[in-house]
Amino acid sequence: MGLKLGTSGESFVLCKFHKIQTRTYSLKSGKVIPSETWYGEQKKKTKSSKVKEDQKISQTDDIISQKASDSIDVHIVGKGSKGFSRAVVINTTSTRYLFNCGEGIQRFFMVDKLKIAKIEHLFLTSNSWSNIGGLIGLLFMLENIGVPKITLHGPPNVEGISSMCKHLGQSDGTKLEKRLLTEGNYEDNNFKFQYVPFFRKKEKTDEAAFASKKPKLDSLPVEVSVAYICTPKPSIRRIDIQKCIELDIAPGPCLNLVKTGESVTLEDGRVINSEDILKPLVQSPSFIKCSHSGFLTPLINNEGLKKYQNTDENTPVEMTVDLIIHLTPEHIVKLPEYQQWINSFGANVKHMIFEDTFSNVMDDEGSKIQSHLNLLHPELFPLLPALTTPTSTLPDMTSNIITGENNLKYHYKPYTQLSRELITQPNLEDFQSEITRNPEITEAIDNFKQEVAKLKSEIPKDDRVYPEIVFLGTGASTSSKFRNFSGILLRLDDSKSIMLDCGEATISQLYDHYGEKTDSILRTLNGVFISHMHADHHLGLCGIIQARLDAFGKEKKDIPRLIVAAPSSMKRWINYIDGRIYPVSAAIKFFPLQRLKLEDKLNIAKLLNLDDFNPVDVNHCLGAKGLCLKYNGFKLVYSGDTMPCNNLVRHGKDCDILIHEATFDEGMEKEAKFKMHSTTTQAIEIGQKMKAKQIILTHFSQRFKKVPNFTNIHTSNVSIAFDHMTVRPCDYPYLSLLLKPLAVMFEDAIKINNIIKMKRTQKDALKLESEAAQVKSHSS
Description:
CATH superfamily of the largest domain: Ribonuclease Z/Hydroxyacylglutathione hydrolase-like
Low-confidence stretches: 1-65, 211-220, 393-397
Shape: globular
Number of strands: 31
Helix content: 25-40%
Strand order of the largest sheet: 7-6-5-4-3-2-17-18
Number of helices: 27
């Protein structure tokens, strides 16, 4: 059975099976055939035998015209660590049903190569940001692969979130179809879903918690939590070959009727029914979600759930629960009343719970690269906490309590089994041994360290560690297992910091980078600069705001508002979130970049403890800005997204460091111009015109997986950024020295990049040739 309950917009799903009535048919007996040849279960069928088999099964198809899936499993795609939601996918042979869609969900699907195109339904247990933060990113991804529609189930006022993104609102791509709670039950070939909404009054925000008066909010007076009762539809039960052999029953076309619940009378008079020769019904799991103590009372007292408590071996299968997945924060699970409620289901019911952790490292590949780079320079490439802390205990079935992990799968149709095959446990020693066993890479690393030591002896000692630049996302447009969306944390000192852009899942990257120290870092965050309104640069803002508030804890009297300097159109997005998700405006002070006057710039600089705050127009989309800022004599320029821009050069003259986008490779100038971005060479040329002391390239096209093509860079003050790379002023002299060892470490990746580039060039050439032929044909 399968249950799923929630709070604050959380929910439960209850899956049930129903019995089928039987009738009687006659069948002539025959000889018993060895089991390995029966129905091709172990022996591969020939084409002719498959045709015959199809003819036999066609009798069943007449009875069940819409066949339910023979395979169902539950896949954990979000274990609920800090910055990420608790989310699961129900997989069938034809469809995937996603429950909750937090920030970074599309990256999870990419990392594990899950077929995101099969997602047809999204069930939201609440409209909290932790559950819907990845919705727009998911829609972008579905649109890019040509998925026509996805159906949204859940609380009211969620579907409008897609219209906040101009591209999605005007495109003919993936349609977001909302199904209202008032429409009642929904069903398809595999399941019947029943909506069970819960309500509670919203808590008032304490205005005194913020540094200035809280603006009036147009918000709903109640929070909605939706429960989903999910009943799997009956599929054809498979014949148990061993049972047939034991009963001396020969195969025949009418045996297929037994799969549908029919009874069959043999020639010797015996009546064979489904229970005699079919494999048993498989129980379905239950999902319970309760994210707020305010929903505990309706959860515990729910009559619909009580009937599944205190069951035993004599309880009918349709009234039992096999597994309950508690998509619930750990602190609520530990409450005595919640523990009592768990125990009320009896010892035979298994419970999957989720531990609150600071790390959500989703794959080995990204962690592996970070561990490799750490051997090169530990300060520039610090190890992620997940690589240095003890790994969690793998889930097992030795008790009725199972710890949920990313990629844990629970199969319950056609068989019940817990699968750990996809769970990854990053291992630092194994990762780094791949490098230490390679003599060429080891030599390159040793040579780099010798060059650094030599350079240190030749230049004045520099102990400056601030401003510190932490790259949280260095990819363009979308995310991958190696690079997240744009996001840079600029730490001015140990008590003040600023965020430069924050794409989706920036908060997850922050938790991955700092682990248990993240809350203290968030308390230093004074401001966020959003360069433009493309989704890959701003969809992480709400997650940052919410996590920052949580980091301050219950002592809200001294919480300073977060300065948000962003395009004017960002206000529309904030207003939407403000009225439907949570009161964003109460936690921020918003400055529209297009309307900034000199006094506003001076005010922002003062609030952020800067000497100068100067947003400048750049050549990208409407309203796009770069940023020039000064702090204690240090000048930093951030390009945002832009084509080569002389205005940026003029304002950024003689900067200490230029962080410039380099989306496209050399030779892709036409595509760069069309999409209003820069190539690697163009970005370097801008830095040279600007007379920047150091140039760090970022925002690389995700078509180049591990690294961009950088072997053509020969300038002494240029380096490339990686996710989690941490740069301090004392490191500047050594940055460009990284390129040589990186070329050796990523030699194979660079070769793949060149192949991709060559194929792209050939494709473009063929396209131009075709277009030229068409022009010539029309002219003649």
